[in-house]
Amino acid sequence: MSDVVDSDELLRRLQRARACAQDEARSWRERADGLGAGEPDPASEAVVRTLAYETVTRVLDEILTPGAHSDQG
């Protein structure tokens, strides 16, 4: 982990991480929606993972565009 990266590469990496988190949140949200009441544990896990990826996305949004999403709560 001693690679030195410039600001443009760091920005690209953050943007890729944000896109990945969005994709994962969408995927887990679809899984949660597809699971029924008869499957509470998998549905619960899917909801928790969705929230986790949505949180990561919000954090990366704030890093990439500070203050742009301050109205969300």
Question: What would you say this structure looks like, in words?
Answer:
This protein is an all-alpha fold and 73 residues long. It has one domain. Helix content is 73%, strand content 0%. The protein contains two helices and no strands. Helix 1 (7-34) packs antiparallel against helix 2. It is elongated, with a radius of gyration of 16 Å.
From the alpha carbons, calculate the radius of gyration and give it in angstroms.
16 Å
Q: Tell me about the largest β-sheet.
A: none
Number of helices: 2
What is the terminal-to-terminal distance? 35 Å
| Class from helix and strand fractions | mainly alpha
Strand content: under 5%
Cα shape = elongated
Mean pLDDT: 86
Short account of what is shown:
Helix content is 73%, strand content 0%. The protein has 73 residues and is mainly α.
SSE order and pairing:
Elements: H1 7-34, H2 40-64
Characteristics of this structure?
73 residues; mainly alpha; 73% helix; elongated
